[in-house]
Design goal:
single chain, mainly alpha, 8 helices, globular
């Protein structure tokens, strides 16, 4: 792993501001910082995850991106067959989702935003309320930081 010149939170926020969706931004920033990048596949695998998975308002993309990168880390740093890695991955993902919901009041996009993507004028409302900066970017930053922290713990003790 090479040390990033910027904190992972800043990198994730920059990717988000440059047009990556929330899942792509978190997944790409943390994967790159942790040396887990699959190069071109990272943005593509999370392409439809924004807006609560395909603008359905379900699971927040920042959460799904963080959970995906945790899966990459568990697979890379824990030894043994996939069946032995799943319990650790599920536990870490559950912890992350629960902490995220405690921090932001929910882990789904619609509840965080206060409106659904299927509502008429949703994108206009998103822009008008400056939700990207006021609601989504803090979620992206927190999820990237928490995923990186959890990955550091996996690296430190791969027996999880």
């Amino acid at each position: 792993m090479t040390e990033p010149t910027q904190p992972v939170t800043d990198i994730a926020a920059r990717y988000f501001q440059e047009g990556h969706n929330c899942a792509q931004a978190v997944l790409r920033a943390v994967a790159e910082a942790e040396g887990l990048s699959c190069a071109p596949c990272i943005p593509a695998v999370a392409l439809a995850m924004g807006g609560g998975i395909g603008h359905t308002g379900r699971a927040c993309g920042a959460v799904t991106g963080a959970v995906m990168v945790l899966g990459l880390a568990v697979d890379r740093f824990l030894s043994g067959p996939m069946s032995a890695k799943k319990p650790a991955a599920y536990r870490l993902a559950g912890e992350l989702v629960n902490r995220f919901a405690a921090r932001f009041g929910a882990a789904d996009c619609e509840a965080i935003l206060g409106f659904g993507w299927s509502e008429p004028g949703a994108m206009d409302r998103f822009r008008r309320e400056n939700a990207m900066a006021g609601k989504c970017t803090p979620c992206v930053r927190w999820a990237a930081e928490e995923a990186a922290r959890m990955i550091a713990a996996v690296r430190a003790d791969p027996r999880l």
